[in-house]
Automatic annotation (TrEMBL):
Protein name: AAA+ ATPase domain-containing protein
This protein's record includes keyword Protein biosynthesis: no
GO MF terms, alphabetically ordered: ATP binding; ATP hydrolysis activity
Electron transport found in the keyword field: no
Listed InterPro entries: AAA+_ATPase, ABC_transporter-like_ATP-bd, ABCF, P-loop_NTPase
Domain AAA+ ATPase: 2-176
Keywords associated with the record: ATP-binding, Nucleotide-binding, Repeat
């Protein structure tokens, strides 16, 4: 399942994701309960790409993500995300925003993840990197939850359910992002 959640800035989309994953002290539910299987592996990819260890190289980050893959497969996957030759030995600390996004997707592509939560994944990315993100997401086989205002992006990643967050309540939308005009109007009418 690929799910999108939309809402005005400050409506609580990121806080909801963090509360569900319990990854933030300041995120909490006023009421209700969410149960995740203890065996479920969920990854939250925020806008700063915190899952990347900036003190390691590109290749070391990939090795840490899946130590079962051999060197050749890691290099092949990095090449798919445009990291070639000696670039793989660069420190992650010197990467641009687009390069960090590509590395995060490369890490995700080799990780065993049941639920991937992407928080505004196309913010500050160039067109080529957005294309890479779309391709990577469309190849991803697990459950996906996307927090995004980018309707073009959402319409290209085969969202199967969409929700809107307004006034601290979440509701399913009548339209999916691929029905761009109706989806956009539904979100606008709710703000």
């Amino acid at each position: 399942m690929k799910m999108a959640i939309a809402g005005a800035n400050g409506s609580g989309k990121s806080s909801l994701a963090k509360a569900i994953l319990d990854s933030s002290e300041e995120a909490f539910f006023e009421s209700g309960e969410v149960l995740l299987s203890p065996t479920m592996k969920a990854v939250y990819l925020d806008q700063t790409y915190a899952l990347i260890n900036r003190e390691k190289t590109i290749l070391e980050n990939m090795q840490a993500a899946n130590s079962n893959l051999n060197y050749q497969l890691l290099r092949q996957q990095l090449g798919h995300f445009l990291f070639k030759y000696d670039d793989v030995n660069k420190s992650a600390s010197v990467l641009s925003g687009g390069e960090l996004a590509r590395l995060a997707l490369a890490i995700i592509s080799i990780s065993e993840i049941d639920l991937l939560i992407l928080d505004e994944p196309t913010n500050n990315l160039d067109i080529e990197t957005v294309e890479q993100v779309v391709e990577g997401i469309n190849e991803y086989q697990g459950a996906l939850w996307v927090i995004s205002h980018d309707l073009d992006f959402l319409s290209r990643i085969n969202i199967t359910k969409a929700f809107k967050l307004s006034q601290q309540a979440i509701q399913m939308t009548r339209y999916l992002p691929k029905e761009s005009e109706q989806y956009y109007q539904e979100l606008l009418n709710d703000s």
